UniProtKB/TrEMBL annotation:
Matching PANTHER family: VACUOLAR PROTEIN SORTING-ASSOCIATED PROTEIN VTA1 HOMOLOG
UniProt-listed GO biological process terms: late endosome to vacuole transport via multivesicular body sorting pathway; protein transport
Main localisation: cytoplasm
Keyword match Amino-acid biosynthesis: no
Species this chain originates from: Nannospalax galili
Residues annotated as domain Vta1 C-terminal: 266-303
Protein name: Vacuolar protein sorting-associated protein VTA1 homolog
Polar residues compositional bias, start-end: 232-241
Family the entry assigns: Belongs to the VTA1 family.
Superkingdom of the organism of origin: Eukaryota
Xref: Gene3D superfamilies: Immunoglobulin FC, subunit C, Vacuolar protein sorting-associated protein vta1
Topological category with respect to the lipid bilayer: Peripheral membrane protein
C-alpha cells in the first residue's frame, strides 16, 4: 500500500484521539481496513471537538486527505464499501485482540503485548461507533479491557503481581492520560489464543467488579461473532488455533421448516444478513467455529423468527 502523506502536529484539543491515530499508523500495513476506520473515527471525533480553530482545521484537512487516499486504495474492498462487512471485520479483529489478552490474563501471563492488546481492543470498540451506537455489551467490554490494561500496567510498573482474571474495579481510571499503556508495539499479526492459554472456568473466581459482569466463559461481547447459541453448549472462548474444534450442530436446525405463521420483520432480515456477514468475515480468518456459530444463528432466526 502506498505511503500516506504525514499529518501535521496533533493539536492539544485532539489529545483524546491520539491513540486511535497511533493504532491507525500501526495497522497501515498490517490491516488497512482497521487503519481506515481508526482514521474515520478520529476524523468524526475531531470534527465534534473543534473544527473552527485554524490548527484544528488544518489537521482535519490533512486527515481527510489520508482518508480519501486510503478509500481510493481500498476501493474494491467490501469492508470499506459495505458498512455491515466493515463492522463485522472490525468486531472480529477487536475480538481476537480481546480474547488473546483475556486468556493471557486468566493464565497469569502478564506482559506488555497482552496489555497492549487489551488497550487496543478497547480503542477498536471506540471505533465501532462509526457504524452506530454501541451495545451495552460492547460498552462493558470496552470499560473492562481499558481498565485491565491500566491495572496490569500499573502493577508491573510498581513491581506488584496483578491478580489474574476478573477482579474488583474500585475506581475509574483515565487510561487516555497514560501514554505508556498504548506505547508498546503490537505483535506482527493479530494474536491468537495459544494452546497453553486454555483455562478451566470452574477454577476461576466469579466476576464481581462494579458495573461489569463478565463471567468466565462468557466474556466476549454478545453482539460480536463470538456469541455462541445457547443450544450448542459451547462457551464464547471458541476461537482456537488450528486444528479447530467445530461446534456441534443443533439437530433441530436440520428438520426445522419455517412455519406459515412466522412473520419476519425487516429487522429480522437485517440481523440474519448480519450473522451471515459475520460468518463470511470469520472465514477470512479461517475461523470455522465462529462461522458455523453465526450461520446457525441466522438459520434459527429465519426458520423460527426467534434468536
Amino acid at each position: 500500500m502506498a505511503a500516506l502523506a504525514p499529518l501535521p502536529p496533533l493539536p492539544a484539543q485532539f489529545k483524546s484521539i491520539q491513540h486511535h491515530l497511533r493504532t491507525a499508523q500501526e495497522h497501515d500495513k498490517r490491516d488497512p481496513v482497521v487503519a481506515y476506520y481508526c482514521r474515520l473515527y478520529a476524523m468524526q471525533t475531531g470534527m465534534k471537538i473543534d473544527s473552527k480553530t485554524p490548527e484544528c482545521r488544518k489537521f482535519l484537512s490533512k486527515l481527510m486527505d489520508q482518508l480519501e487516499a486510503l478509500k481510493k486504495q481500498l476501493g474494491d474492498n467490501e469492508a470499506v464499501t459495505q458498512e455491515i462487512v466493515g463492522c463485522a471485520h472490525l468486531e472480529n479483529y477487536a475480538l481476537k485482540m480481546f480474547l488473546y489478552a483475556d486468556n493471557e490474563d486468566r493464565a497469569a501471563r502478564f506482559h506488555k503485548n497482552m496489555i497492549k492488546s487489551f488497550y487496543t481492543a478497547s480503542l477498536l470498540i471506540d471505533v465501532i461507533t462509526v457504524f452506530g451506537e454501541l451495545t451495552d455489551e460492547n460498552v462493558k467490554h470496552r470499560k473492562y479491557a481499558r481498565w485491565k490494561a491500566t491495572y496490569i500496567h500499573n502493577c508491573l510498573k510498581n513491581g506488584e503481581t496483578p491478580q489474574a482474571g476478573p477482579v474488583g474495579i474500585e475506581e475509574d481510571h483515565d487510561v487516555e492520560e497514560n501514554e505508556d499503556v498504548g506505547a508498546t508495539s503490537l505483535p506482527t499479526q493479530p494474536p491468537q489464543p495459544s494452546a497453553s492459554s486454555n483455562y478451566e472456568p470452574s477454577n476461576l473466581p466469579p466476576g464481581s467488579y462494579t458495573g461489569v459482569q463478565i463471567p468466565p466463559g462468557a466474556h466476549a461481547p454478545a453482539n460480536t461473532p463470538a456469541e455462541v447459541p445457547h443450544s450448542t453448549g459451547v462457551t464464547s472462548n471458541a476461537i482456537q488455533p488450528t486444528p479447530q474444534t467445530v461446534p456441534a450442530m443443533d439437530p433441530a436446525l436440520f428438520s426445522t421448516v419455517s412455519q406459515g405463521d412466522i412473520r419476519l420483520t425487516p429487522e429480522d432480515f437485517a440481523r440474519a444478513q448480519k450473522y451471515c456477514k459475520y460468518a463470511g468475515s470469520a472465514l477470512q480468518y479461517e475461523d470455522v467455529s465462529t462461522a458455523v456459530q453465526n450461520l446457525q444463528k441466522a438459520l434459527k432466526l429465519l426458520t423460527t423468527g426467534r434468536e
